[in-house]
Every structure is written in C-alpha cells, then in structure tokens.
Amino acid sequence: MLAKVCSAAVNGIEAYPVEVEVNAGYGDTLVILLGLPDAAVKESRDRVSTALTNSGFKFPMGRTTINLAPADVKKEGPSFDLPIALGILAASEQLETDQLENFVIVGELALSGAIRSCRGILPIALNARASGKTGILVPEENAAEAAVVQGLQVIPVPNLRAAAQFLEGEIKIAPARVDLVQIFAQNHSDDLDFAEVKGQESVKRALEIAAAGFHNVLLIGVPGTGKSMLAKRLPSILPPLTLDEALETTKIHSIVGLLAPGQALVTRRPFRTPHHTASDAGLLGGNINPTPGEISLAHHGILFLDELPEFKRSVLETMRQPLEDGRVTISRAAGTMTFPAQFMLVAAMNPTPDGKMPGESRSSPREIQNYLGRISGPLLDRIDLHVEAPPVKFREMTSSGTGETSAQIRDRVVAARQIQLARFKGKPKITCNARMGPKELKAFCELDEPTKELLKMAMTDLNLSARAYDRILKVARTIADLVAAETITAEHISEAIQYRSLDRQLWT
Amino acid sequence: MGAGFLVSSFMLAKVCSAAVNGIEAYPVEVEVNAGWGDTLVVLLGLPDAAVKESRDRVSTALTNSGYNFPLGRTTINLAPADVKKEGPSFDLPIALGILAASEQLDADQLDNFVIVGELALTGAIRSCRGVLPIALCARAAGKTGVLVPVENAAEAAVVEGLQVIPVPNLRAAAQFLEGEIKIAPARVNLAELFAQDQGDDLDFAEVKGQENVKRALEIAAAGGHNVLLLL
Hints:
The complex is a heterodimer of chains A (about 500) and B (about 230). Chain A has about 500 residues and is α/β, with parallel strands linked by helices. Helices cover about 40% and strands about 15% of the residues of chain A. Chain A contains 21 helices and 18 strands. Chain A has a five-stranded parallel beta sheet. Chain A has a four-stranded mixed beta sheet with strand order 1-2-4-3. In chain A, helix 4 (about 145) links the parallel strand 8 and strand 9. In chain A, helix 19 (about 450-460) runs parallel beside helix 21 (about 490-500). Chain B is an alpha/beta fold and about 230 residues long. Chain B is built from seven helices and nine strands; from the N terminus they run βββαβαβββαβαβααα. Chain B has a four-stranded mixed beta sheet. In chain B, a hairpin with a 5-residue loop joins strand 6 (about 120) and strand 7. The chains are: A alpha/beta (about 500), B alpha/beta (about 230).
C-alpha cells in the first residue's frame, strides 16, 4: 500500500534527491500532497489523475497521501508528475516492479499520458549517477542532455504506459547515447573572424593576451574604432571548452531552459551581452526563487559590457565579489543559492562623455573625471588589461590585405593555456594566470634584478598605483607564456605596463 | 500491472493554440478531459485571472450556442505546465476542446489548425492580440491553418501559405471543423495593401526653398542613413 519512487529537483545548479512516497489508504477519496508544493506541483494532482485514467489505469479510491521528501524544501515545477503517477500505480498495486529503487524518474505529464520535456535534466542525471542509481527515466526530448553523463542508463520514455511497462520488464527501451567527440567536432566553424577587422593590431594583440590568460579587459576608444567588432570576435580565439567546463555551463543553461530541444551540450563558449539598463537581479541572478543571471550564463565564457560607464554604478559594484570568487551567492527569502560565475569580463567605453579623445573633447576636465569616476577603483582593479583602441588610419581601412585569421591566433592561445594547465596542476581552483593568488604570484612570477629595477622605475615615473603591480606581473606571465618563455623578462614587463592606461591617469 | 481497462479515448481532446512571449509565439496545447465525478472544471497550467475567468465565459457561451456543458469532472490542461498563461485568447480553444471531449463535436481537423479567440457570452468571438506572431508560429509548426476572430483575419492573412479562417462565433467554428459549412479563407492582397499607402497628404512640393535640406533627406532616404537637422 506504500510505494516509494526516486526523483530529483534542482536547487541552484545542483540537483538533490526527492523521494516521492505514495500511500493508498482507507477513507473518503481524497488526494493529499505534502512537501511544500508550489502551484505547478499542486496542479500535478489533476494532471496525474486524468493521465492515469487515459492511460488505462485506475485512480485509486480512498485517501491517497503523497509526500515529497525532504519536507522542508519548497518543490517547484511540473517534473514530479511522472514519479507521482508511477507511485500511485505502485501503491495501488497496478504496477509490480522491483526496479523503482534503481531509477531516478522525472517528467511532466500531458492529460493523454504523454510525457513532456522539463528543465534541469543534466544536474539531475549527474546527481543520479553520484547516488549510485542504475539509470534515469527522462522525457524523450531531454534524453540527449542526460546521455552526456557516462555510466548511467538514460531511458527515454514517451508516455506513462511505456514507463510502467519498462519498469515491469514487459518492454525494453534502448538507452539513449550521444557521441561526445562528434558534438564537440561540430562547432569549429565560427562565422566571425579576426581577419575581418582592419588594422587595430595592438588591440588584437591585447585580446590575444587576454584570451591566453583569461584576463579581464577594458577597451577604451572613440566610437568607430571597432571595439564591439573586436569583442564579438573574441570567442573565436578562445580555447575550445573542455568536457568538464561544457558540463558546468550546460547545467546552468539547462535549469534556465535555454537548451534547444534535443541539444546535448553547450559546446561553444557563451558570449553574453546584457544592455546597460540591466538590473542587478538580471546581471547577478535573483528573482523570488533565485535563478542564475547573466554573469552565470556567461560561465566559462565572455560577459561583454558595452558602454561600461552607462551601467548603473550599484549594478557594477555588485559584480566585484563574483569577479574575485568566480561564483555568486544570492540570498532571498526562498533560500540561499550559489551559482558559478567564472567569466571573462570584456568592457568597452568611450574616453570622454562626448565620445572624443580627451584633447579634442568639449567636455570639461571635471566632466571627464566624473565620467571615468563612474567606474570605481575596486572594479578597475579587477580588470587586468586596459587597452586603448586608436582611430583607424585611412590606409588601414582601405587596404585589401587581410590580417591573421582567428584560427592562427587560437593556436597560440591554446599553446599558452597548455603551459598554464601544466603549471597549476594540483590546484583545482586555479586554471589560468588571471586567477593566480599572492602565493602563486610569488612562486611563478619571479623577476631578476634588472627587470625588477625596470618595474620599480616605471611605477614611480608613470605614477602607477600599487594595485597595478600584481596586474602587471600576471599579464607579463601570460605574455611570457605566449612565447613559451620560462622566466619573465624586461620585454614582457614593459609590454604589460602599457596595458595600465587608466592607472597612469593619462587624461586628467 | 493491474487489471486496468482501457477507457475509450473520446473523453480526451486536444486543441492546438498559441500564446505570445516577447514578440514570438509559442505553441500551447489545450487538452480537455471529460471524466466522471461531480461536476467541476479544473483548469491547469498556471492560468492568470483572465484565463481562469475563461471557465465561466466558456460555459455560458456553450449554453447560449445551443450546446450542453458536460456534467462530471472536466480537466483542462494548458501545456507547457510551467509557463504562466495570460489573457482571454484561450476561450475558443477551451470551448472547442470541451465540445470535442464531450462528443458534441466530431472533427478530425483539430490537429491541423491553431485556434485563438476570446468568447462573448453569446458565443460570438472577439478579437485578441498577437495574432500575427501566432500565425507565423502556426506556419512554422506545419499547420494547415488558423482559426481567428473575424476582426483579426486580415492581420493573420498576411502570412502566406496558411489558411486563415475567420470565425464569427463558436457555432460557426464548430461547424467549420466538422465540415458542415465552408468558410472562405481570408486573403489580403499585399500589393494592394502597400499601394494604398502611396496617397500621402503631405508632399515635398509644399515646402518652399530648402533645396539643400531636401537633397540631404533624399540621400538619407535612399541609403537608410540617420540624419540630424539643424535649421
């Protein structure tokens, strides 16, 4: 009379197991749903009863108690329809199986008994494997997404009756499989290429360094210098996603429902471009029940903020902590969630409010100061490279010669990234130069005496702030990695110093 | 498995409808099940207040159109279940779903048409919003046609390769689906529509002088350039 079905739900980006217990008892016919169900879960009751009848089963008479354990976590969404239906069948002895223990079951039911797709399947599949289940019963449309998880039988079920028959062993359903190699092979045809951008060699060089060390970048230039054009081509020189990275990014996109039906994995680095009217909840995540925001959707990819000073200052300030930690913790009445947010911040801005170079600008120095002041020091502190995009010269604009292609640049970037991966082996939190802490800086960015002297001189002469020091070292490390140099030399340091233009207080 | 008996499938009906999110439409399946039990209408799929009111508009419109509202437990599901549904445009698909589920409508055409419309208590069909994106969505989903309120027919008819059936009231919609009456698909002549716009009241000839500004505007119009006038 009591049946237990294993299901799961998503909290943050991790799934947690939910046990659906169904008791078919005596009394007046009544269905009681326990375990803090929200509106969509409460509606399950009616969808399930109708789907049961339409699949040729009987809805049990008497008092049916359904408990979604753990009882103190709010349950959301329609994905408990299928486990509840199967629980009712088992409790009313219409389903005889010993397989319920071995499978995690999720799915929304149509009134006809057909099973509809739902969100967050990838984290649920990962959780099922972690808790040692044999397999998972999922809607057909989500099968590809779940099949990414190796060592788990992913059974795509078309309808309630097929699910019941599969559990009874009456029919066999072949587990869904995906070919990961093939999925990753598909995505190397980028539409955008660096070769399309005329001139701007210095900016391209800076972006190459940024891509190699995953450094945050700020592009400064008058309108028409191709800042956005260059930023949009940045994904084409980033190293391809690894499987682990792809899984993490896919998890986030899965719970927001951004995956196309049948899509197994996010295989391209995300490139998110929120408009400057974005709210802090939109950027960081939020809502009554916390959901990931733009910075999490850009996990392992790029967050491009065009017109950086136009963003609300309070919104920009909220990004400081995620930039440092690589994750964001959101606390709301409904609970506290942590979402990963390791993104590369690429920002673009004009040098002055009216878009002219400081020398030609009609704005007063005070106005320019105010404009630049909208970006706080602590935020600038977290941006390793400040790059000035000079106006394009007429000769460059009209030249027919093409520059380097993205593929050529990416080869160098990938090589530099390999060096870093080897260097930070055994330090799971650090994967690239940009994420080095003080300890790593000391260990891997040793300077010889003449180089140290050069840096010291530059810092006093150019009036560089103390916070620029660490940034210069990190960027110099990446520059050295790009030429596979063991030690950082004066040449690398002097190039790195160039990328601190806002620290040099050039314009005021 | 228990000795379940197969309940004949006429008790369940499915009507295709659609709703708008942003400027794109997404398909909504309206499933109606007429089952046993006390007379009760259950509306599922996160309906907002206007959708919840459908229940009463539909039951009155059904009676006033000469149909019976089915006794027993009627379950209406607007799938997908986790998206909030808004507005009165599900009235007509719900009504037709109830008719089909209670065997008052015998049609095999329900699968081929996307149906939207608000019902008046008399059974007349009122116009609703967002019909153009819905028509585009219907064509993309490979449907034969759409059933739309008469007032919105011109808007939907802009979509080529789709039968746009303007339905004046619930009874006509039901009869059309049963094949009892024919309704000519609405057509618009796109060339004619665009031709109408040419008769502007305003003319450049009315502006004296300013030849260089006119020349600049001519260039702007020719290339789609933005212009700033400093006069």
